[in-house]
């Protein structure tokens, strides 16, 4: 990587860090708790554009022993080759052919409290997301997500 490329990469990383720190500065938790969140994800690529995935997660609050289980089923469809703006960045990547600039994801999320038959908490959600993916310097990928859900 050239010196100019390294400087751009450092500048981009610093800018991303500043934006992240600035956006989380006002977030203050009134109560803290210790939680344990194991998760298993499974991804299946059907074609270069289509991908199915599922994740199973169990959440446990260590102090209260309250537990929740989540199941997510989703499908992704990616399209649109990156434009001229991104081609220079993608030329040096082995994933250049498979990287698509836009992606839509739809899925189902079911969450329930465990151990009480779902009496404490239960949620069923259908969601739809649109992603714009922009490769930046070095190994950095900027992804913008717009999400809506029906609970």
How would you sum up this structure, described in words?
With 151 residues, the chain is of the alpha+beta class. It has one domain (30-150). Helices cover 19% and strands 46% of the residues. It contains 2 helices and 7 strands, in the order αββββαβββ. The chain has helices spanning 3-24, 84-90, and strands at residues 35-36, 39-45, 50-61, 67-79, 102-113, 122-135, 141-150. Strands 1, 2, 3, 4, 5, 6 and 7 form a 7-stranded antiparallel beta sheet that branches. A hairpin with a 5-residue loop joins β6 (122-135) and β7. Mean pLDDT is 77; it is low at 84-92.
List the helices and strands and how they pair.
Elements: H1 3-24, E1 35-36, E2 39-45, E3 50-61, E4 67-79, H2 84-90, E5 102-113, E6 122-135, E7 141-150
Antiparallel strand pairs: 1-3, 2-3, 3-4, 4-5, 5-6, 6-7
């Amino acid at each position: 990587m050239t010196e100019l490329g390294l400087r751009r990469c450092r500048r981009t990383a610093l800018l991303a860090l500043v934006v992240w720190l600035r956006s989380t500065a006002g977030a203050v938790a009134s109560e803290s708790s210790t939680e344990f969140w194991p998760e298993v994800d499974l991804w299946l690529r059907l074609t270069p554009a289509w991908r199915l995935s599922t994740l199973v997660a169990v959440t446990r609050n260590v102090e209260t022993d309250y537990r929740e289980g989540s199941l997510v089923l989703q499908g992704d469809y990616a399209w649109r080759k990156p434009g001229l703006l991104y081609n220079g960045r993608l030329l040096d990547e082995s994933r250049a052919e498979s990287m698509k600039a836009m992606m839509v994801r739809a899925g189902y999320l079911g969450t329930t409290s465990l151990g009480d038959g779902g009496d404490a908490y239960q949620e069923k959600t259908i969601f739809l997301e649109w992603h714009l993916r922009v490769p930046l310097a070095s190994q950095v990928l900027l992804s913008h997500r717009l999400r809506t859900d029906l609970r």
